[in-house]
Amino acid sequence: MAAGIGRITGKAGVALATSGPGCSNLVTGVATATSEGDPVVAIGGAQPSSMRLKQVHQRMDTVNLFRPITKYSVEIDAPASVSEVVANAFRTAESGRPGAAFISAPADIMTAAVDAQVLTPAAREPLGPADAAAIATAGELINQSQQPVLLLGLLASEPRAAQAARKLLARAQFPVVCTYQGAGVVSRELFHCFGGRVGLFRNQLGDQLLDEADLVVTIGYYPVEYEPAIWNRGRDRTIVHVDSWPMEIGRDYRPRVELRGDIAATLGALTSVLQSRNVARDSRVLKEIAEERDNFAAGARAAAAAPIHPTRIVYELQQILSDDMTVCLDMGSFHIWLARHPYSFRPRQLLFTNGQQTLGVGLPWAIAACLVRPGEKVISVSGDGGFLFSGMEPETAVRLKCNLVHLVWIDGAYDMVKFQQIAKYGRAAAVEFGPVDLVRYAEAFGARGFMIETPEEIAPSLRKALEIEGPVLMGMPVDYRDNGKLMELVFPGAFD
Q1: Is 2-110's fold the same as 132-286's?
Q2: Residue 90 neighbours by CB under 8 Å, 6+ apart
Q3: The three-state (H, E, C) secondary structure of the chain, written as one string
């Protein structure tokens, strides 16, 4: 939930836990926040300082536990240091590429008297644009390229950066793809430039755009979002890297020019030196993508069998998706369908996890969205396996009176693991589990529960659920027989 607040607002969400296992239970969420680029400050209790080196109840070296998975991990060593530590934790979590900070708070220091001044973290003044000479060099390279492509990452979806990216794209209309976390940057007016989202498997038409590019401009991109070893292995082409954070150089990612500075300011300066042209208009691959998008919608509308095919669910969600809605995605094979196909014209409207591919994030993120976007409709989606990883959170949603709808795709297995096991080993192992009565489960927490059995029920049931006060859990049996095709080189014929 704290990471969801950080993703949506850009300001650190806060998580508080007790000593020992309370802190160790924070590890997955904290690691996820750092790898995803979400600002979080986690505060963990600790035994009194005099007990630090003794084997006593709930004693744990949490500072070293969290150090590899945070940007900042410290223990408060004196009452007068409390405000300094807290101020620096927030500043570090929110600056540069955001991530998590951890504070260990010993019991004796927390109960001691303090006469030090409360410090407010310094306001984050944005950096200036990247070096002018580097911007001029990048502009010359881009203007000379024949098939440039923009690759947008998570930090391109920060509101100021997204606005600047749209201005750049309006001037120089290049084909553009984004990682899952970069969803929503391309506007409706520029949708003809959009080649879709890429990630996990290099088998989308958007990957073909990248393959044919002689120059790639990455904006707010981090390798964990889509590994260069997948999309850029063995490529000898120009890369221009735009970010506020130093690039990570590797065998498969060696940008010719690094434009390091405030992303929005850098894009503004870069736009001013770009020639006005429309590469997207003549792109054969973009025409194929537009045609495939239409074919997908037509096939999805015709998918009328039960259990329900994933494409029909994707289609129905697209029809109901409005600008005043936030959709939070858990991890699983359903995530790939929803990461590839629905489109959005609002940054950080569709929230995806990919850094750690953490099961269970969808429902907590939805609760976070209800807290910071109280006037919006909120939908979250998980598989039945992922749902059980945060299955206690309907209690939180009921207690906080969250108006959200959580969809559970039901197949009785950890299918994302299953279809990859079958592809690699020819069989699946240890991925199936028993049924859960989702309606009775929801009611046990004081929420509403529904089951959708046929494709025709999806749209009216969703509209009804979105009008209900409080949380709603909705289950639907899905037909995952085509999931193996998610790994294939191309994906036409989902409805053969």
Answers
A1: yes
A2: 12, 41, 101, 121
A3: CHHHHHHHHCCCEEEEECCCHHHHCCHHHHHHHHHHCCCEEEEEEECCHHHCCCCCCCCCCHHHHHHHHCCEEEECCCHHHHHHHHHHHHHHHHCCCCCEEEEEEEHHHHCCCCCCCCCCCCCCCCCCCCCHHHHHHHHHHHHHCCCEEEEECHHHHCHHHHHHHHHHHHHEECCEEEEHHHCCCCCHHHHHHEEEEEECECCCHHHHHHHHCCEEEEECCCHHHCCHHHHCCCCCCEEEEEECCCCCCECCECCCEEEECCHHHHHHHHHHHCCCEECHHHCHHHHHHHHHHHHHHHHHHHCCCCCECHHHHHHHHHHHCCCCEEEEECCCHHHHHHHHCCCCCCCCCEECCCCCCCCCCHHHHHHHHHHHCCCCEEEEEEEHHHHHHCCCCHHHHHHCCCCEEEEEEECCECHHHHHHHHHHHCCCCCCECCCCCHHHHHHHCCCEEEECCCHHHHHHHHHHHHCCCCCEEEEEEECCCCHHHHHCCCCCCCCC
Task: State yes or no: pLDDT of 491 exceeds 70.
Answer: no
Class of the domain covering 132-286: alpha beta
CB atoms closer than 10 angstroms to residue 114: 14
- Tens of pLDDT, residue by residue over 143-154, are 999 999 999 999
Rounded CA Rg of the chain: 24
Q: Between 3.40.50.970, 3.10.620.30, 3.40.50.920, 2.60.40.10, what CATH number should domain 304-487 receive?
A: 3.40.50.970
C-alpha of 473 from chain center? 22
Q: pLDDT tens across 91-114, in order?
A: 999 998 999 999 999 999 999 998
Report domain extents, the chain: 2-110, 132-286, 304-487
The CATH architecture to which 2-110 belongs is: 3-Layer(aba) Sandwich (3.40)
pTM of the predicted model, to two decimals? Answer: 0.92
Q: Each residue of 256-303: pLDDT tens digit?
A: 999 999 999 999 999 999 999 998 888 899 999 999 899 989 999 999
